[in-house]
Specification:
Helices cover 22% and strands 34% of the residues. It is an alpha+beta fold. It has a single domain, classed as Beta Barrel (OB fold (Dihydrolipoamide Acetyltransferase, E2P)), CATH 2.40.50.120. Strand 3 and strand 4 form a beta hairpin.
């Protein structure tokens, strides 16, 4: 009897472990507004990531990605130049760190990025992605004959809409709502038109 009861308890515990719903932990961020993304950026451009290097800084791994500016849309960077972009997380030796909500520029991939001057002392004049992963939009196409379209970055975590204080206020447009699914040319026109208003002298 004791043996049967013990076996039954073991089977119940096993079933609970197998069939219990998985708990997923993700970062929670406020979704960046279109105006906010433009205001905080110094450049907006189409880039292709060439190579990436991980480095330890203050007990944390950062990745420096060497990018080529394929097409400058607005701001200080020019078409044809190269730049370094610093993001949190990466791999150094046998150790890797993943930061939820951070931009991840994969070598060989092209994307639309919004950049601002970085704070790195290891690589002077490097940049950071504005609003972390929310300022990074990979270019994707289902058919090589069709133009590439703006896609959502990965590992953004849970995004919450900005809180509207006044009930009669118009909710801000989110950057993702403006850009996702549009062709590069459409997105470029949207960026340059809005940029001139946001950064008017």
């Amino acid at each position: 009897m004791r043996f049967a009861r013990r076996v039954g308890l073991i089977l119940i515990a096993f079933a609970c472990a197998v069939f219990a719903p998985a708990i997923t932990v993700a970062s929670v961020s406020i979704a960046v507004s279109w105006d906010g993304l433009l205001r905080e950026s110094s450049s907006a451009c189409i880039v292709t990531a060439l190579e990436a290097r991980g480095a330890w800084e203050s007990g944390r791994i950062y990745t420096y990605t060497h990018v080529h500016i394929d097409r400058a849309l607005a701001g200080s960077l020019a078409t044809g130049v190269d730049a370094w972009v610093r993001t949190m997380g990466g791999v150094v030796g046998d150790i890797g760190q993943r930061v939820e909500g951070e931009a991840a520029l994969a070598p060989g991939q092209s994307s639309l990025v919004f950049l601002r001057p970085g704070l790195s002392t290891a690589v002077p004049h490097s940049f950071e992605v504005t609003a972390r992963g929310q300022g990074h939009f990979p270019l994707e196409t289902a058919d090589p004959k069709l133009p590439a379209r703006i896609a959502q970055g990965h590992a953004l975590g849970l995004l919450m809409r900005p809180r509207v204080i006044r009930s009669d206020a118009t909710p801000p447009r989110l950057a993702a709502e403006v850009l996702l699914g549009r062709t590069v040319d459409d997105a470029a026109r949207e960026v340059t038109a809005a940029w001139s208003q946001m950064h008017a002298p």
